[in-house]
């Protein structure tokens, strides 16, 4: 086992055991170097792997924070990191690997996500803290600013949905989304809806507005509205995919 994977396993175990809670800041790079006797390069690579797994997020000028506790029984969708939700118009590229879900598989995943994430949004509206609301707003703004940057849009979109799950205050919601990872957002480029850039921009704005509606309901602590807006967003995502492929 490499030194990097050893550190990843150690930090993952500390998060799983609750030693480091979701929302808490990881020790600094210097602190990890000193504590574990590993090079700064190893520490940075380990944090990058935790980010890729959806467990940690690095915020500029603030450090790295735990997003979710890893599940002990990962949820399998039948594709290794290549699933998609068609929620992000123009987001693609990284999921074009072999083994991707079929369009029909993506539709089934969306059907599954609709009731789960709608209820998570309702709980988040009732239980969210001001810090969690600020984090949700940051993800929303990052998504809105990423129309021309597909990879950034995918990760901002995933952060938005994961932060709702975290704010729900029930670890099973965040465990599920962590298991799915950013791949639940990504669609292979050749499966994106065809059309001119103006159409894509219009669709991206529409999706951003749907996210904004969810945020506003959670901000207002209106559980019923949060449930409804989340259901509308994911149902619309499914409809967009159906129309794009004429299924």
Keywords:
single chain, 247 residues, mainly alpha, Arc Repressor Mutant, subunit A, Four Helix Bundle (Hemerythrin (Met), subunit A), two-stranded antiparallel ribbon, 9 helices, 2 strands, 60% helix, globular
CATH topology of the largest domain: Four Helix Bundle (Hemerythrin (Met), subunit A)
Number of helices: 9
**Broad CATH class of the largest domain:** Mainly Alpha
CATH architecture of the largest domain: Up-down Bundle
How many distinct folded domains?
Answer: 2
Share of residues in strands: under 5%
The overall pLDDT average reads 80
Going across the major beta sheet, what is the strand order? 1-2
Low-confidence stretches: 79-99, 187-194
How many beta-strand elements? 2
Q: Characterize the largest beta sheet: strand count, sense, and whether it forms a barrel.
A: 2 strands, antiparallel
CATH superfamily of the largest domain: GntR ligand-binding domain-like
Instruction: Calculate Rg over CA atoms.
Output: 18 Å
Reading the helices and strands in chain order gives: HHHEEHHHHHH
3D shape: globular
């Amino acid at each position: 086992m490499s030194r990097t994977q050893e550190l990843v396993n150690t930090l993952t175990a500390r998060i799983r055991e609750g030693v480091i809670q979701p929302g808490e800041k990881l020790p600094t790079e210097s602190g990890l170097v000193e504590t574990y006797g590993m090079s700064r390069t190893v520490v940075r690579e380990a944090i990058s792997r935790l980010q890729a797994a959806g467990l940690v997020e690095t915020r500029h000028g603030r450090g790295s924070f735990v997003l979710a506790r890893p599940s002990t029984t990962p949820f399998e969708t039948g594709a290794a990191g290549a699933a998609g939700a068609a929620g992000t118009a123009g987001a693609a590229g990284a999921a074009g690997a072999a083994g991707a879900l079929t369009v029909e598989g993506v539709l089934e995943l969306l059907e599954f996500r609709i009731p789960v994430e709608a209820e998570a949004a309702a709980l988040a509206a009732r239980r969210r803290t001001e810090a969690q609301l600020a984090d949700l707003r940051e993800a929303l703004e990052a998504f809105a600013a990423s129309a021309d940057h597909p990879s950034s849009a995918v990760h901002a979109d995933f952060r938005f949905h994961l932060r709702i799950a975290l704010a729900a205050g029930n670890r099973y919601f965040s465990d599920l989304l962590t298991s799915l990872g950013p791949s639940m957002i990504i669609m292979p480029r050749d499966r994106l809806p065809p059309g001119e850039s103006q159409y894509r921009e219009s669709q991206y704005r529409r999706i951003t507005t749907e996210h904004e509606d969810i945020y506003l309901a959670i901000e207002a602590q209106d559980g019923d509205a949060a449930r409804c807006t989340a259901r509308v967003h994911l149902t619309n995502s499914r409809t967009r995919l159906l129309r794009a492929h004429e299924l």
